[in-house]
């Protein structure tokens, strides 16, 4: 009896994903000068051929020589670093500020630079409020008193508090906007100096005569500010341009007789919902009329030492300074001087001229009980840092794969 052999059809082979051609990003070598969020570093290892960490995988000069891209959180990338990176195609920063990158040199070399505008705005604004509260409620001082063994009756640490204060903001970017919203929740009044911002960026500004300003955080008194018959003198650091509109002070009378000239198309296209605020033309109009000076502008040649002794001494007695922007904007020696003179009630600093700031690097700033010093942690929440790092990685992937990035700087 013969038997018939039946052969089953051969099943199709499984596709071999490992033999597919890797994308340029998957072949690329990426350099991390400083750590990213741990979860984001694992994500980067999935996206790129090799991820090199400074101090872990070798010395900086050795790692830069291999780098196709740099993922930057903090640290400087200037000409000396660029000279060591002949293959560099892109620098993608987790953060907004770009003063640590030599942008002109990157342009000359054809290196793409990106950032994450507004990515850390809520986090930095949150810290701005925290610093304000720590100073205005004398939290650092009170903690020191009781932890050092001193009995401290509450009547001996009365504080100005934050509620109802007048806040002066320098800048109108995303961080300033988020900070303004939080200050408003404390019943604060907002006055802004931002000469390069559109007139109605945050909606129509109020007349300064509608604000009851205070000469001291504990003693509210009305301040009369005259209207200007002619436009005020322009700031020498920020000459007027078409994007730097004249912002005259207006009395209630002039406000009622002057027609509304709001640029409707401009306000309708703004990404910012209108919030109550007042605009002024100069630092001279801002500083004498506020309880809190909060800095939210980038560090540029024009803003280097923008706040020096002359500016600080014009602040009203009992005011405070908050700087979560960049250290070079404030003259630190001048700050010490006005604190010693009793002009300022205190200062909250998350940024310094020399960073990292700790120990002896802080100098006199670290010896004052009415100065709160933090190690540049404005954006350092767990989730905020993770999201920002992921966005920077995705930008790098797009650039290396020939796609346009979402936020190119140069």
UniProtKB/TrEMBL annotation:
GO molecular function: glyoxylate reductase (NADPH) activity; hydroxypyruvate reductase [NAD(P)H] activity; NAD binding
Family assignment from sequence similarity: Belongs to the D-isomer specific 2-hydroxyacid dehydrogenase family.
Keywords, sorted A to Z: Oxidoreductase
Domain D-isomer specific 2-hydroxyacid dehydrogenase catalytic as annotated: residue spans: 62-409
One Pfam family it belongs to: 2-Hacid_dh
GO CC annotation: cytosol
The name this protein goes by in its record: Phosphoglycerate dehydrogenase
Ranges in coiled-coil conformation: none
InterPro entries xref list: D-isomer_2-hydroxyacid_DH, D-isomer_2_OHA_DH_cat_dom, D-isomer_DH_CS, D-isomer_DH_NAD-bd, NAD(P)-bd_dom_sf
Region described as Disordered: spans on this chain: 1-26, 223-274
UniProt source species: Tremella mesenterica (Jelly fungus)
Sequence ranges of Low complexity compositional bias: 254-270
This protein's record includes keyword Zinc: no
Location of the D-isomer specific 2-hydroxyacid dehydrogenase NAD-binding domain: 130-198, 277-378
PROSITE patterns, A to Z: D_2_HYDROXYACID_DH_3 (PS00671)
């Amino acid at each position: 009896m013969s038997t018939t052999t039946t052969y089953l059809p051969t099943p199709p082979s499984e596709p071999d994903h490992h033999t597919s051609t890797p994308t340029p990003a998957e072949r690329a070598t990426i350099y991390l000068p400083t750590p990213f969020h741990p979860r984001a570093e694992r994500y980067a290892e999935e996206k790129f051929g090799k991820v090199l960490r400074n101090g872990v995988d070798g010395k900086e000069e050795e790692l830069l020589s291999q780098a196709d891209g740099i993922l930057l959180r903090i640290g400087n990338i200037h000409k000396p670093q660029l000279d060591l990176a002949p293959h560099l195609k892109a620098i993608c920063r987790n953060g907004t500020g770009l003063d640590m990158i030599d942008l002109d040199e990157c342009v000359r070399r054809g290196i793409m630079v990106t950032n994450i505008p507004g990515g850390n705005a809520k986090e930095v604004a949150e810290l701005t409020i925290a610093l304000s509260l720590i100073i205005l409620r004398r939290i650092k001082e009170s903690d020191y008193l009781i932890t050092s063994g001193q009995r401290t009756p509450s009547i001996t640490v009365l504080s100005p508090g934050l509620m109802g204060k007048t806040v002066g903001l320098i800048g109108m970017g995303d961080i300033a906007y988020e900070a303004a919203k939080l200050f408003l929740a404390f019943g604060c009044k907002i006055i802004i100096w931002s000469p390069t911002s559109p007139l109605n960026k945050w909606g129509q500004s109020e007349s300064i005569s509608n604000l009851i300003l205070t000469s001291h955080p504990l003693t509210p008194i009305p301040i009369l500010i005259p209207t200007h018959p002619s436009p005020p003198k322009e700031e020498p650091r920020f000459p007027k341009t078409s994007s730097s509109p004249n912002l005259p002070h207006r009395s209630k009378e002039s406000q009622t007789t002057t027609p509304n000239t709001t640029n409707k198309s401009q306000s309708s296209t703004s990404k910012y919902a209108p919030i109550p605020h007042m605009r002024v033309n100069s630092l001279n109009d801002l500083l004498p009329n506020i309880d809190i000076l909060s800095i939210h502008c980038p560090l540029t040649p024009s803003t280097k030492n923008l706040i020096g002794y002359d500016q600080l001494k014009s602040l009203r007695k009992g005011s405070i300074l908050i700087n979560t922007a960049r250290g070079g904007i404030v003259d630190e020696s001048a700050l010490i001087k006005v604190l010693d003179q009793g002009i300022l009630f205190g200062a909250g600093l998350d940024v310094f001229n020399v960073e990292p700031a700790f120990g002896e690097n802080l100098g006199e700033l670290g010896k004052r009980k009415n100065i709160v010093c933090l190690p540049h942690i404005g954006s350092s929440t767990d989730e905020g840092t993770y999201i920002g790092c992921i966005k920077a990685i995705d930008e790098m992937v797009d650039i290396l794969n020939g796609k346009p990035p979402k936020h190119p700087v140069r």
